[in-house]
Amino acid sequence: MTSAAPLDPADIRPDFPLLDQQSGGQLLAYLDNAATSQKPLAVIEAVEGYYRHTNANVHRGIYELANRSTEAFEGARQKAAEFINASDWHSVIFTSGTTEAINLVAYAWGRQQLGSGDEIVLSVSEHHSNLVPWQLVAKATGAKLRYIPLGEHQGLDLEAAAQLINPRTKLVALGHQSNALGNVNPVAQITALAKNVGALVLLDGAQSAPHFPVDVQALGCDFYAFSGHKLLGPTGIGVLWGRREILEEMDPFLGGGEMIHTVTLEGSTWNELPWKFEAGTPKIAQAVGLGAAMDYLTALGMDRVQRTIDDLSDYAARSLGEIPGITLYGDADTRSGALSFAMKGVHPHDMAQLLDQEGIAVRAGHHCTQPLMQSLGVAATTRASFQIYNTVEEIDRLAAAIRKAAAFMLGA
Ligand SMILES: Cc1ncc(COP(=O)(O)O)c(C=O)c1O
To answer: Do 285 and 150 share a structural domain?
Structure first.
């Protein structure tokens, strides 16, 4: 828990025009932020302003407009590097999101470097985006997948991790924060275990980058991936940061324009980092929007963002925890940002539909974590997830609506 002061939603909410609308006859309470976040005016205006005043293709232009577009795009890369405290912007690759970033590593590093006898360690709580690419790599290379289970209190089992990570381990790919449970995983301990055996570490930062300050140098990981749209930015943009020497060694992921140095009919040579991994016209307007989102969050202070989301999450866990018949999932010691729950006798989808009638947007389902659901012994949960614009009043409405839904479904 950070000692920074929480943000005041009265200051924040006017920045998010979408929140000012009715749903189910009430003010919309948007509690599906783990799926995607809403966008502040600063982001909306940056994207609009880019298309109104700056749009041109990047890197190739010899005219003033194209130079300004390139500056806007590459400026966003600098901001992304600073946002995660990367020492070198060459190591910051724009992708379409976390999913593409992880696939890039799986294809360009995994298929080149792994073979039978090698092992990749994941956890059972991974989002499918940090699981299926490795299953494909394992199938193609003969490498074996091993999974860190949940331990007591539904956190990752560190003792099991210590047993699983061994000299055959070549990569540990781990969610920094679980989208389904909100758990902040013990990535420092697990990274230390990986480094002891010379394995690389990839962190899936889809949920952590929007929630707390991230410092890839302090984390000691080799790859870090995140999505813009969960971080108040546009859809269609994300970041892969990687250690420069590893990225230099890797072959390209996709082939096409931008990523080449020379092309002859006989073969091609590759552009420098980061463009080697950015084939085709890049996501220019999206990157500009992401840069504006990072400016917005940085101006608020990521430590204050963290404090705000932690406070809301703790308040929600306390309020919902008092409801008879409810089960809260996740590790109460580390959980933040997302709160998964189930009400005895009420299907999670029915719960989400009844909450929708009260103007409360939450998600129900497996949250793209089917193996985690299996390991919890459930098919689905209902999940409320928080961002800086959410309020205690919205959580009070959520708790009241859950009680009402339970009374309606159970005839209590
Ligand atoms: C932990 C985690 N990893 C990966 C992803 C995939 O992100 P995207 O769909 O933006 O590529 C998500 C999205 O829900 C996520 O929460």
So the answer is: yes
Q: Give bridge partners of residue 201 from the DSSP assignment.
A: 172
- Token match 């901001």: residue? 79
Domain range for 393: 9-30+302-410
In a domain, 3, yes or no: no
**Residue 173's CATH number:** 3.40.640.10
**Residues for the chain: how many in total?**
412
Q: Domain boundary residue among 253, 271, 299?
A: 299
Question: How confident is the chain (412 residues) per 10-residue block, as mean pLDDT?
Answer: 90 98 96 98 98 95 94 98 98 98 98 98 98 98 98 96 98 98 98 98 98 98 98 98 98 95 97 98 98 98 98 98 98 98 97 98 97 97 98 98 94 72
Residue 38: inside a domain, yes or no? Answer: no
Q: Is 221 a catalytic residue?
A: no
Up-side HSE of residue 332: CA atoms within 13 Å toward CB? 10
- Residue with the nearest Cα to atom 14 of ligand 1? 35
User: How far is residue 122's CA from residue 128's CA, in Å, rounded to a whole number?
Assistant: 11
List 66, 323, 368, 400, catalytic entry: 368
> Which atom of ligand 1 sits closest to the CA of residue 100?
11
Tell which of 251, 266, 299 closes a domain. Answer: 299
55 and 18 inside one domain: no
For ligand 1, atom 7: residue with the closest CA: 98
Residue identified by tokens 């099991």 is 160
Put simply, whether the predicted model's pTM sits higher than 0.90 gets the answer: yes
